[in-house]
Design brief:
The complex is a heterodimer. By secondary structure, chain A is of the alpha+beta class. Helix content of chain A is 30%, strand content 22%. Chain A contains 15 helices and 24 strands. In chain A, strands 13, 14, 15, 16, 19, 20, 21 and 22 form an 8-stranded mixed β-sheet that branches. In chain A, strands 1-12-11-10 form a 4-stranded mixed β-sheet, with helices on one face. Chain B is built from 10 helices and no strands. The chains are: A alpha+beta, B mainly alpha.
Chain lengths: 517, 258
């Protein structure tokens, strides 16, 4: 009776949830999704075997009704949910899972997710055991096996919503999936996702009540919203995300040789790191809603953060000493290398991201005190990606990384030297430095054991190496700032992507109250 | 008008010497401060003095917009004049039509993405304005062409030809002085257009590079509102409106009829 009443109430609620994405999803293929927009759409429309609950951080049954991990951590057996149907009426079976994994691990697909399923001893093998059982066998004991399956979408159309309409560059409309396995069905009938690059306009539209959620709010907009519409701005605490600066160390990069030489110098990288006032970046740019970073792992990730790692202390005098020890000299306010070249380089970042632009300007002023001239170049995102991943025609880059999963395996596609997203020198055939080889070995080793202590030891060492070498100058970990309209009920903001619509099927909307917001 | 422009620019240069801080200096303990004796227009979100940035930005925007307008008007005068005299008319008119049909904003974004990265903000902004100037010749060229065509068959030109006036003298003494007011009118129209174009690029984060100020990047502070209770944020808008309005007033007041 209670269920009947609830279903009836749900049918009455209906409504439309509205929010915006900052860019058009680059792909609709769930196995090739690498950008946040595509991942957001995928999260709402695709089914996975196991879903990580964004609030509890625990794995929950999704398309797999239950699962069992072998004691040695080399095998996971999934019992699939029966009666699940694709929108065309066909039944979901173990064959769909097997096909998905075969395609995912096909090297010609170049799936960014595939790296997570690689270990130093090979890749995972997935096979069906009957129509509703799947076994995934790993060549070596594998850590937190369950959590990595959250990333793999099994086919399309098994999620709570379906894509109903797509207007390129304008909007994507999702409708409730009538064949969604979980009952009751989502409370809202549709989700309208507008493509809105400009965050200020996004805020204006939020205030007008045109959109209900802002998943990521910049610190200045958060402060403004907190003043103007108290109760709608939410700080869900520190995220696992990081903002960082790296230097292009790729041999094939078409940048001047002296510049490459500076970037390959550990002393130079340390000096830059010591000259940047991270506390000021947090206080001025993030209005206090960020924590200075010591490495890729945020201190809020208590399970994996290496105890005792503190952010590099701001010490311009020590930075100057390091540079002097490496052959640099200061002449009339200009830092010069051994050959007399003035130290000047450009930092690229994505245009329109005011937070990063401000950080770049502050870094520029900090480094000016060392006699280093920085030119800030903001590029539209496609041009930025082109330079970062294909032409490698840039010197330094300021960007951020969004982490959902606290597990170190999440960083495989960034830290492995062979990864295309390895920031400072991507897609290396063999590691070009001994310390990168060591990171590769440790990352693969930690992925190949279920023993937490052994994994922690390996990953602690990775954090130490990253700190010793500083190929990436980690700057800060921002807090999760979001906006939630009073028109939406059921939102439980978290620090993990997607922050506000991770349980979209439980959200409902009410008519706009007087006063908007 | 040129005198007024020069005086305005000179005032901006002289005022900069009297300012309490350089435009790029960050007072990190006073971000987003309201107006005070030290910072008459307050500080921006990095603690930089807004007045210094406004005055320096005025220099950048006015100087470079004028330079870009001069460039496009020079090209327009040359090509429009030649076409008006009937030389390569079809080619020049076709080229003008092509340039007018180009989506200049996307073209600028594309060109900006192809430029070398490691250039100083001043060089970068100069290139941007040169591009604006190089791309903006088509509209004034069509006006100049029409004027030259009309002038070349006017009575005084026929009379001059009839008296045996040589070709160079026809151009130098009769055609150019009469076409000049039209060209000047185009210049006054083009300068504010380029100021606004730079502002548009600045609003997209693709205009003048930090830390160099310009009206464009100063106007970015107004994105998404926030003016309520902070009226001093409107200073760049007022200045931009005053300058653009002044140019329009000059065009209206002066008689450029041929």
């Amino acid at each position: 009776m209670r269920l009947l009443l609830f279903t009836f109430a749900t049918a009455l609620l209906g409504g439309e949830l509205r929010f915006a994405l900052h860019q058009e999803p680059k792909t609709t293929d769930p196995l090739l999704m690498a950008d946040e927009s595509a991942e957001a759409i995928g999260y709402l429309t695709d089914g996975v075997l196991i879903r990580i609950n964004r609030l509890t951080q625990r794995p929950e049954a999704d398309l797999a009704m239950s699962w069992k991990v072998a004691k040695d951590g080399t095998k996971i057996t999934f019992q699939l949910r029966q009666g699940v149907k694709f929108p065309d009426g066909s039944a979901f079976t173990a064959e769909d899972v097997v096909k998905t994994f075969h395609r995912l691990l096909d090297p010609t697909l170049h799936s960014p997710i595939a790296d997570t399923f690689k270990t130093e001893k090979g890749s995972v093998k997935v096979s069906a055991q009957g129509p509703f059982a799947v076994v995934a066998e790993f060549p070596a004991p594998t850590a937190s096996i369950e959590s990595i399956f959250d990333q793999v979408a099994i086919g399309s159309g098994l999620g709570p919503f379906l894509v109903a309409e797509r207007k390129s560059g304008v909007s994507i409309v999702l409708k409730k999936n009538p064949s969604y396995w979980k009952k009751p069905l989502p409370l809202v009938d549709t989700i309208r996702i507008d493509i809105e690059q400009n965050r200020d306009i996004e805020l204006v539209r939020f205030r007008r009540g045109e959109i209900h959620l802002i998943d990521k709010l910049t610190p200045d907009l958060y402060e403004r919203l907190a003043q103007d519409a108290p109760g709608t701005a939410v700080d869900a605490g520190p995220t696992l995300d990081s903002e960082f600066l790296w230097f292009n160390q790729a041999k094939r990069a078409p940048i001047p040789e002296p510049t490459k030489e500076w970037f390959r110098s550990t002393a130079f990288r340390h000096a830059i790191s010591q000259a940047i006032q991270r506390a000021d970046l947090c206080r001025v740019v993030y209005r206090g809603h960020a924590t200075p970073a010591a490495g890729p792992v945020a201190p809020s990730n208590k399970l994996w953060f290496k105890e005792g790692m503190a952010p590099e202390a701001f010490d311009p005098a020590a930075a100057a000493r390091l540079l002097a020890g490496d052959g640099f000299r200061l002449e009339k306010g200009v830092l010069r290398d051994r050959s007399g070249n003035a130290v000047e380089f450009s930092i690229i970042t994505n245009a329109g991201n005011k937070t990063r632009e401000r950080m770049a300007v502050m870094i520029q002023e900090d480094l000016t005190k060392l006699g280093i001239k920085i030119n800030i170049v903001t590029l539209d995102f496609p041009s930025l990606l082109e330079r970062m991943t294909r032409t490698l025609n840039y010197e330094a880059c300021l960007l951020g990384l969004t982490n959902v999963n606290p597990d170190p395996s999440e960083l495989m596609n960034v830290l492995l030297s062979s990864a295309s997203n390895h920031p400072w020198n991507p897609s290396q055939k063999t590691p070009e430095t001994a310390w990168e080889a060591e990171i590769d070995r440790l990352m693969l080793a930690q992925a190949a054991t279920a023993d937490h202590r052994a994994r922690k030891k390996s990953f602690d060492r990775v954090q130490e190496i990253l700190r010793e070498q500083e190929p990436v100058v980690y700057l800060l970990h921002p807090n999760a700032l979001s906006a939630v309209s009073k028109q939406v009920t059921g939102v439980k903001p978290t620090a993990f992507f997607p922050r506000t619509f991770w349980d979209a099927e439980h959200l409902s909307t009410t008519p706009k109250p007087a006063g908007g917001g | 008008m040129i005198r007024a422009l020069a005086i305005g620019f000179l005032i901006a240069v002289l005022l900069a010497a009297l300012l309490p801080a350089r435009y790029e200096k960050q007072f990190r303990d006073s971000p987003n401060a309201g107006p005070s004796r030290q910072f008459p227009l307050g500080t921006d979100d990095l603690g930089r003095d807004r007045l210094s940035r406004l005055i320096y930005g005025t220099r950048v925007s006015l100087l470079l917009a004028t330079a870009a307008a001069l460039l496009s008007c020079a090209v327009a005068a040359a090509l429009g004049g030649i076409a008006g005299l009937g030389i390569a008319d079809t080619v020049i008119v076709g080229a003008a039509d092509l340039f007018l049909s180009l989506p200049w904003l996307f073209l600028l974004l594309m060109v900006r993405a192809c430029l070398p990265l490691n250039v100083s903000p001043m060089v970068s902004v100069t290139i941007t304005f040169l591009l604006l100037g190089a791309l903006g010749w088509a509209a004034p060229a069509r006006v100049v062409r029409a004027a030259v065509r009309k002038l070349s068959v006017s009575d005084f030109m026929l009379q001059a030809r009839a008296t045996g006036c040589p070709q160079w003298r026809l151009l130098w003494r009769h055609l150019m002085p009469n076409a000049m007011p039209i060209l000047l009118a185009q210049l006054w129209i083009t300068i504010p257009a380029y100021v606004l174009a730079e502002s548009t690029l600045g609003m997209l984060g693709l205009g003048v590079m930090e830390p160099l100020p310009s009206w464009g990047n100063l106007l970015r502070e107004l994105e998404g509102g926030g003016i309520a209770g902070h009226p001093w944020l409107l200073a760049p808008v007022l200045l931009l409106a005053a300058v653009v309005g002044s140019f329009q007033a000059v065009v209206e007041r002066e008689d450029y009829s041929v």
